[in-house]
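Can you give me the bound-state structure? Components:
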Amino acid sequence: MAAVSMTVNGKAVTADVEPRTLLVQFIRENLKLTGTHVGCDTSQCGACVVHVDGKAMKSCTLLAVQCNGASIVTIEGLAGADGTLHPMQAAFREHHGLQCGFCTPGMIMSAVDIVNRKGSDLDEHTIREELEGNICRCTGYHNIVRAVETGAKAMAGSAPVRQAAE
Amino acid sequence: MYAFTYHRPDTVRQAAGLLARKDDAKIIAGGHTLLPTMKQRLASPGALVDLGGVPELKGIERKGRGLIIGAMMTHAEVAESAAVQEAIPGLAALAANIGDPHVRHRGTIGGSIANNDPAADYPAACIAMGAIIVTNKRKIPAEDFFQGMFGTALEEGEIVTKVAFGIPSRSAYAKFRNPASRYALVGVYVAKRGGEVRVAVTGAGASGVFRWTAAEEALKKRFAPKSLEGVKADPSGLNSDIHADAEYRAHLINVMARRAVEAALGK
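Here's the bound-state model for the whole set.
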C-alpha cells in the first residue's frame, strides 16, 4: 500500500491505496465522486477527464500515486456551493449538448480546459479539433460544439456571474 | 493490471539506483503507453520508478545552434514553448499534433523516444534533425539510438535525460493519421540545414523509423515540392495491414514529404 494525499475539489484527502489504483478508481470508489466516468478505459474516449493541477487529463491512464500532492478538479467541483451551475454546465443544458449523457462530464471538463488554454472566443473548427480526445457515441457533436461555444463566451463573464450567485 | 511497488525518486541518480536494485523495474514517464500496456497485461513490471518528480528532467534551453529539451517535457509543453516555436517551429507543430489535448498534457518526449513506437512522431524528428539522445551514461546519435520496432540502444538501467536538436534552417512534419487510432499511418519529417537535407519516415516501415535517401538527394538539388515529383518510395520493407498496404504507404510517403517541404517553405 502507498499513502496518497491530494486536494480534490478544494478538499484535502488522504488514503492508503494499492499503487495500481487508477486515479479514476480512487475518485469513484474511494471518494465516491461518481460523476467522473469510465468509458473505454484505454485513454481514448475522454469520459474520465479531470483537471490535474489545472490541466485536463484522462484519469483512467493515471495512477492515484502519480497525483500525490496534486490538486484535482472533477465535474463535481465546477458548480457553486449553492448548486449554481458552472457556465459551461449551463450551456450544455441550454443547448442540449448531450443525449445519453455518459460522455458529458468529460466533455465539460475538456471544454473548460479548452477555454483555459485558448480563451473564450472559440470558432467551431477549433472546438472540433480540441474535442478530439472526447468521444460521444450518441454522435451528438453538433449540440456539444454549440454548447462549448456558448459556454466559453459565458465563462468570459463568469466571475461577476458567480459573485452575484454567491 | 498486476500489482507492483511504486517509487518516486527526486534525482536521476536515485532513479538509476532504484532501477539497479529493484527486480524487474520499469521507468514510468507520462505513462500513456506503459499504463495501457500494463492494463492489457502485456507488461507486468515488479516495480515502477516514476520520473515525474525529477526536476532536472524538465526544461527547454537554446544553446547556440542547438535546442535541448528535457526528457520529461510533455508534448503540450514542447508545443507551447516560445523557444521551440522560434527555433524549430516544425517540432512545435509536431508536438501539437500528437494524440489529443489530454494525452499531450501527460505524454513526454523522453517516453516517446525510449518506447520507439514504430508509429510515433518524435523519432522522425530526431532522425531528420540528427538529434543527440542524452542519457545518464552517454550521448547517442539518433541514428544509432533507434533500432527497429520498439528497439533502442538503451541498456538496462539507462535513462534518457535530454534530447539535443541541431536547429535546421527549415523543417516541417506532415502526417497522415489513421482515422481511428490517430497514430501516423505515414509521417514524414523534412529538415534542411545548410546544404544538407534529411527526410525521415515514421509509421510506414516494418522496422520503424527510416531515412528516405532518394528524396534527400532530390531535395538537395532544389528544396521544393516539385523536386519530389516522380521520386517513388520503395514499398518493400513497408507495413501492409488492414489500414493500408505497402503500395499505398509508399504513395503516402511521397505525398507527405511534399506537404512537409511545402510547410517548411511556409507555403
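A couple of observations. Chain A has two domains: 2-77, 87-165. Strands of chain A lie at 2-8, 11-17, 49-52, 55-58, 71-73.
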